[in-house]
Amino acid sequence: MSEDERARARRVLTFALDVAMQMFRQGIETAVVVRTVRRLASAGGIEDPRISVAVRAIHVQYCPSDGGEPVVLLGSIEANDTRDIGRMGDLETLAVRAGTGEISPEEAERSVEELSAAGPTWPWYVSLLGGCLLAAMICLQANGTVLAALAAAALFVLANRVGWALGLIGIAEFFQVAAKAGTVLVAAIALLSLGLLDGHEAASLSAANLVLLLPILSLVSLVEDAVGDFHLMAAARMVTVLLLTGAILAGVMVVVSVANGLDILGEAGRVQLAALPLALVPVTALVGSMGNAILMGTPVRWWPLACGAGVATSLVNWAGHSALGLATPLAIFLATTVLGILAGTAARTLRVPTAVVTIPGLTGAVLPGPAMYLSLSQVFAQVPGSWTAVAEAIVSTAAIGVGVVLGLQLAALRRTESRAPELN
């Protein structure tokens, strides 16, 4: 391979790697990122590059057919629970345009640099508003009152700003999450002690805010990577999930050990999740999906799709649980499988990222967050049978990722079958 060809190959692969790292930073699925790298490499005349995704790293290698020295590039991956769906769409659109030759390599490289330097889709205060809506909706799902839901929204802002302040001075994420969890519980205990809320309301707003700290999206991505044969990446995400979950437990236990005379955990153990009437199921899902769509930086043009995904998923989940009598994990699995099919279909027909459908849909409709928090509270309060509830909540959460991946694969299979007659 001549020096000019080597330089061209390096430039093509460097661009593909830059796009891949940007996509990982925005939380796009590992399988999608790998397919994008292959598409961009092929568009640049580099056929069959070797791509390996390791622990927080992506390795790209091109071995020329003439047996010359291979071109090898290595990039680091930043992947966490932070998502900006608007940026996801920008990156996926750019990758498609560059892969099809619609824009020149120079234009594509400039666009990647611009996206890298661009800020979030929504200002921080708009994202906070979305989080407030989501916290209020989860509080109501945990059988909270309207007053508790309003307090949950305010508490979300307080905990968020505590984490932001700690991040400014360089405190590690583990301690930020622990401080947020402690802030939530301290505020709930304070409202309970002052008589502004009763024990049931304090427990429901605690549930609403603590479950928003759980690394649910990382857990879903973990399952997606494990099912998709990206085992090293899944292992790295597992460490993140365990670390952040441990931070929440640490923050809670510090507060509990100091204020063990108050019965907020015992009250939480006695909270019963409300079985919402059918008329309220799509309403709460719509509010939750809208809140999460805003929180995750979804552009306005995709809000109807995000809300529709939440409503559809909630109805399927309700039907599986109430009409078919399925256990909670099975009902969630059924609902998220349908959600994955909807996401794959929307991505193909409407040219939107699958996250536009999956993230608001699962957050607004099927997250077993209140059940996770309340089951752990029952463990702390030594309620008989509480570990069974914890196990069911964990299985329900894992079922989300499995169902979404299955739905996406079914949508892709249907797409392949629809194309089959054209190939004959």
Care to describe what's here?
Helix content is 73%, strand content 4%. The protein has a three-stranded antiparallel beta sheet. The chain has helices at residues 3-25, 30-43, 85-99, 105-117, 124-141, 146-168, 173-193, 199-213, 216-227, 231-258, 264-270, 281-295, 303-323, 328-349, 355-365, 369-380, 386-423, and strands at residues 50-54, 57-62, 71-76. A hairpin with an 8-residue loop joins strand 2 (57-62) and strand 3. The longest helix is centred in the C-terminal third of the chain and has 38 residues, at 386-423. It is globular and about 80 Å long. The protein is built from 17 helices and three strands. The chain is mainly alpha-helical. Helix 5 packs antiparallel against helix 12 (281-295), helix 9 crosses helix 17 and helix 11 (264-270) packs across helix 16 (369-380). Residues 419-424 have low confidence and may be disordered. The chain starts with a helix and ends with a helix.
Question: Main sheet, how many strands, which sense, barrel?
Answer: 3 strands, antiparallel
Number of helices: 17
Give the overall form. globular
The helical percent reads over 70%
Elements, N to C (H/E): HHEEEHHHHHHHHHHHHHHH
Q: Which residues sit in consecutive blocks of at least 5 with pLDDT less than 50?
A: 419-424
How big a fraction of the residues is strand? under 5%
The radius of gyration over CA amounts to: 23 Å
Label the structural class. mainly alpha
What is the arithmetic mean of pLDDT? 80
List the quaternary state of the chains. Answer: single chain
Number of strands: 3
Order of strands in the sheet with the most strands? 1-2-3
Give the CA-CA distance, first to last residue: 38 Å
